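Repro:
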Amino acid sequence: MHELILHHYPTSPFAEKARLMLGFKQLSWRSVMIPPLMPKPDLTALTGGYRKTPVLQVGADIYCDTALIARRLEAEKATPALLPEGQEFNVSLLAQWADSVLFQHAVALVFQPESMALRFAKVPPEFAKAFAADRGALFSGGTASRLPLEQAKHQWPALMGALQRQLQREQGDFLFGEPSLADFSVAHCLWFLRGTPVTSPLIDDYPEVAAWLGRVLGFGHGSLSEMSSEQAIAVAREATPVALPNEDFVDPNGFKAGQAVSIAAVDYGVDPVQGELLHAGRDELILRREDERAGVVHVHFPRLGFRIEAR
């Protein structure tokens, strides 16, 4: 049984989502710090070019995107469940909305000049300039577009009002009564806004939401220990990928098992990963690739939000 290895950096909101899910399930994991900016050569050795944060590694299997990471953590430990029985559809849809629409608003609000001035007050000007260029490249070529700050401010009361009403109507302390993936998907966006006094009132002005966020963040991050990126690559090199899922290979566009393809996100961070398509299931795509440092790895992607192209 291989350890869970999370490749992340402290200020990444989606990494915070993954860390909270690990804490919710009270899992032990290894922490590998990655650069917040490209290039990320050690991560690329494992993913083949996927650049978003975080990435979960289990031996020689590499899991991209927090939606798929959540499913892998469910397989690791079934209870407590991120997708409670009978609520899977509702939870998944709200999580998808939060990771796209709500996150888009959070990014616009966080990146307003007054907020960024505080966030970058103690870093060299060269880093701030490099960060702006990197994030510009991150959002280049995909379907996601930057939401204008004025529009994000205009719509924010409606979004927070909807969250307040949901929390007021539920009998439990979470969005669907009991904790679920939906809570962690919404929480990481609000955690991002809590980063400076410029944006923290956008949460604190809504008491029910602020109290709920405190409960979600209270799950913590589980039990973690540090690991170097070189050690993580060695783990992959010495491991064998797990057996493919026992599920029919189905692709509506005619892609076949064994075909050389590239897989990429469609919204942002659209850098393609090339390899051999091994599996196309209902929810998951698996690509086989070989790296001179990491050896043979299987890179896993969710079907939703990703595309396949023939090489």
